[in-house]
Amino acid sequence: MAETVQQETAKPADATRRRPALSPSRAGDFKQCPLLYRFRAVDRLPEKPTRAQARGTVVHSVLERLYGLPTEQRDRQQAGDLLAPAWEEIRAEQPELEHLFEGPDDPELAQWLTSASGLLDAYFEMEDPQRLQPEACELRVETELPSGLLLRGFIDRVDVAPTGEIRLVDYKTGKAPREIGEAKAMFQMKFYALVLWRLRGEIPRQLLLMYLANKQKLAYSPDEDELRRFERTLEAIWQAILRAGKTGDFRPNPSKLCDYCDHKALCPAFGGTPPPYPGWPEDPATNEESILDRTD
């Protein structure tokens, strides 16, 4: 039986004080737009989750629960039975989801649950969970690089073969992206591969992205040289974040993605004014992922 919601940590010297850290989502924010990083990690401005993001969270929860069951119970019927309870629990834990539907009798809620059920159908067409024995699901990982940079994140699933090879799996509830989106998704997987390598001394043999919406898989095998280069990339990103954090100079980077940003009205690139800079926090929200990271 797979263990769930585990922690795997290489503790820093001062473990009593929570330190600023970098997650793949926040690193991606800074690469996309430094001001977006500030709004999310420093100002911690609220954002309204979308139905697509909530659906991603629910599907992830169902798959995690499914792998927590005995092997013979991991069938499609059981996954379907887990769907509504998973939604109710997530909704209760995250009040910001209340705005998504008018109530339990909202016909759009039924349609939304049906769409989530369709993603579970796709998953069972792509894999047979009765043939798999994951080492962990929703594994929380944390490690400190030699430079002192602390990395944190959650890995959807870790598979370990009888011969010891490691595979990292990430579920995506959207369609397989084009080249730019593919690079963004693989950035996340390389992040996890680096963390696990630093924790265990073993480079994952395969990074697997599963796109449920169109039933496509994207697999990649990293090597040591590549992960060392990626480590230097993360360190450069973090140094840039720290420089901006000292001065508050988080500049916008306008792109077509701005139309989907909750904070567009506050952006100077569109005539807005950001709130006063609160200063670099002791523990910016760089360390945890949220429902906003479970995007379609």
UniProtKB/TrEMBL annotation:
Keywords: ATP-binding, DNA damage, DNA repair, Exonuclease, Helicase, Hydrolase, Nuclease, Nucleotide-binding. InterPro entries: PDDEXK-like_dom_sf, PDDEXK_AddAB-type, Restrct_endonuc-II-like. It holds the Pfam family PDDEXK_1. One of its GO terms (biological process) is DNA repair. One of its GO terms (molecular function) is helicase activity. Residues 1-27, 275-296 are annotated as: Disordered. Residues 22-268 form the PD-(D/E)XK endonuclease-like domain. Gene3D superfamilies: 3.90.320.10. This is Putative RecB family exonuclease.
